[in-house]
Amino acid sequence: MSYIIANITIHDSETYQKYVDGNTKVFKKFGAEVILVEENPKVLEGKWNYGHIVLVKFPDESSAQRFYDSPEYQENVKLRWKSSDSTLILAREGIHHHITETP
Known about the structure:
CATH architecture: 2-Layer Sandwich
Helix content: 25-40%
Low-confidence stretches: none
Distance between the termini: 34 Å
Mean pLDDT: 90
CATH class: Alpha Beta
Number of domains: 1
Structural class: alpha+beta
Largest sheet: 4 strands, antiparallel
């Protein structure tokens, strides 16, 4: 599994909704599943400079990257760029580091 995590502050709700609506077909094409949309996350530590967090699951890293690079998404993402400030990251399943207690 791989995940695209988006932190978003929306400035134009109407245009942003067009972006959301446009993603439905593209998500399906790449096997994506929206896991979480949180409009007001509870901050436990540090500063939160965004309004929303969105978590989208993909079958693998390749699917996530192909989604992001696809002509359909690259056309649609212009609506997000126009209507919000955001940061996206790709979190890949891979090496897991275990935290162990030291004596």
